[in-house]
Amino acid sequence: MTAKISCHDYGFDCSFVLNEPIGMGVVRKIKEHFEKEHEIDYSEEAIIQMLVNKGHSKEEIRKG
Ligand SMILES: [Zn+2]
Hints:
Elements: E1 2-6, E2 17-21, H1 24-38, H2 44-53, H3 58-63
Antiparallel strand pairs: 1-2
Helix pairs in contact: 1-2
Zinc ion is lined by residues 7, 12, 14, 16, 33, 37-38.
């Protein structure tokens, strides 16, 4: 399954889009982006929850 995450969906005026296979790599990239570009320090748990809200299961995220 592919993660399709767009910062715009979360209310940011930002063109960041991630479209790649789901997994912890995606979680880290999103975390890094929020830290660098938006100065928001989300925990990995919070980002996993964002992906769960998009229809992914925690199991597929953690083993990816
Ligand atoms: Zn952004």
